[in-house]
Amino acid sequence: MESKELLDNNTNLQNQGEVDFSLERRELAMGLVETFSGDHLTPSRKLAAEIIIGMPEGLSDRRRIDYITRSLDGVSEEINKDTVIGIVEDYKVLQEAFSSYMEDIDEGSLAGKALKLKDNQTIPDDLDMDGDDYGKSPWAENPSIPAPHLDNLIKVFSTKGEGAEGVGLETAMIAGAITLSNLKIAPYHSAFAYKCAVFAENFLIPVCSIIGLDNLESELKDEIGVMTGRNIGDALYRKDALSSDIDSIMNEVDRVVSLHFGSRYSTDPTRFDFAMGNFNGVFSELLGESDLKPAVNTNSSHSTFFGSGTVKTPNGAELEVRARGKGRGSYCKKLLQTIGYYDKRSQPLKDSGEFHPIDLYGMTVICQDNEQLADAYAGAVIKAINGGKITPYPAPGRKSECFVVKGSSDFQEKIRQKIIDKIPGVDMKMFSFKDSSSGFTDAKITGFYATDDGRIPYAPFEMQFSTPDARLVARTGKKAAHFFFKLQKIYGDLVNMSDETAEKITDIWQRKQDFFTNCADGEKESHLTKQSRERVRKFKRMNSTYRKIARRAMISV
């Protein structure tokens, strides 16, 4: 569908830049909200999402309040109206925060120029010129997305400290699904698509990482990665453009991922059956009987697989497990790195013939503590080395290390000794042992699983062993938080985290546990932060004022 000409450049990330957020598109957005919210989507949260998705763009404050109020007329008793209003108002705060962020981006930068375009505009091929008079686009830069303002971002969602906005986590969840639908339908050359990508990367993905919405985080990253690849390939204005190669690269990505995880646009739930069999096969070979199930509804149009379940080990222990399939966007980035596109920061594979990443199948085993982790990991390593359907194999970039252990010296030694006791002549070149100063404990196995399928004989995998404490550090730790580690890897010193911000991150994570994971449905339905409740009160005051004005106008007539 073609974009219409807009009167201004105010970004409304639910539907701006489109002729009409049609029924089909509203259904896509709502379907993704339902998929990625799962059991957390209470009736009130669902109605709030429907209002956000269906609200016309460009409404004045008065008409906007009237639209929301009319949407609440005659709703069932199970709907908590304050919760609905709170979420919709929180979404407005989130939009305003993004608008403020865009205004702060250097107008002379490629990103700044692209963010100043109207949503319906195509990012032009002469947005900027280099010294050789070749045009440049922000998509062709590395990184293509400007650095986030982390302290300001965390303030938006935190309830603690001066300036905290207290936007609800349910709003982040809903906004993430709506933005995902925008990324799926927006023309990838458009300024609107670029704004959605920046919004997702710098506002939604970090919060998803903190509160454990890993499936939504991965799906957003996947769409952005595919969009980045397409824009790089079509960058005819860039002297080292991959236009002649991008179709073959993207086709190769889609071919491999589709073989394992089904067509990108499919909604057939059986598309993940082959992958499920392989995940369960790896777990069974290395640990014991597994019971893995899809973590989100497989009937919706998401293209990456997520699973959760348990594994019963021979000694009777029951371990929680997680699984995810590698997305097309991440895969595309790996291939671009391999062929050296990201010249200064590229990390080409040591074996030029090895074109594909090892972690097509990613698995996590969650042990109660480091002692259980050491036992489970050592047992899995022994089974991997002794044969069966598992072939240990190093990840690209490693010479021979298929088994990577990170932790204290005692932790490392315990694993080393257990393995040597069972396999005295084991080749220690297959192992990498690293100290961890942050208290983060981690152990990995990489290799191939024999699928017994003639078309796809092997499934490359990475299995990670962790503990609840280590996973918490990976979500909220100041130095070890996974999202912060990745941001620093991309942006270096442009991204920093103050002690105050680190404390607020822990607060955000704890709210997820208190009001999503460990509470009754009734509490979920009525929960709002104190900042959200104040916005509800303000909404009601304004609504009352507008009604009084309207009555006076009628009387005067």
Write up what this structure looks like.
The protein is built from 19 helices and 11 strands. The protein has helices spanning 23-37, 43-54, 61-72, 81-104, 110-115, 150-157, 169-185, 191-211, 214-233, 246-261, 273-286, 328-338, 370-385, 409-422, 468-476, 482-491, 499-517, 521-526, 530-556; strands at 128-129, 135-136, 289-294, 306-312, 318-325, 361-366, 390-392, 403-407, 431-435, 442-450, 458-466. The strands form 2 sheets. Strands 3, 4, 5, 6, 7, 8, 9, 10 and 11 form a 9-stranded mixed β-sheet that branches.
Unreliable residue runs: 1-11, 14-21, 344-354
Mean pLDDT: 85
- Topology, number of strands: 11
Topology as H/E string?
A: HHHHHEEHHHHHHEEEHEHEEHEEEHHHHH
Provide key terms for this protein.
50% helix; 9-stranded mixed beta sheet; 19 helices; 557 residues; alpha+beta; single chain; two-stranded antiparallel ribbon; disordered N terminus
Short synopsis of the structure:
By secondary structure, the chain is an alpha+beta fold. The protein has helices at 23-37, 43-54, 61-72, 81-104, 110-115, 150-157, 169-185, 191-211, 214-233, 246-261, 273-286, 328-338, 370-385, 409-422, 468-476, 482-491, 499-517, 521-526, 530-556, and strands spanning 128-129, 135-136, 289-294, 306-312, 318-325, 361-366, 390-392, 403-407, 431-435, 442-450, 458-466.
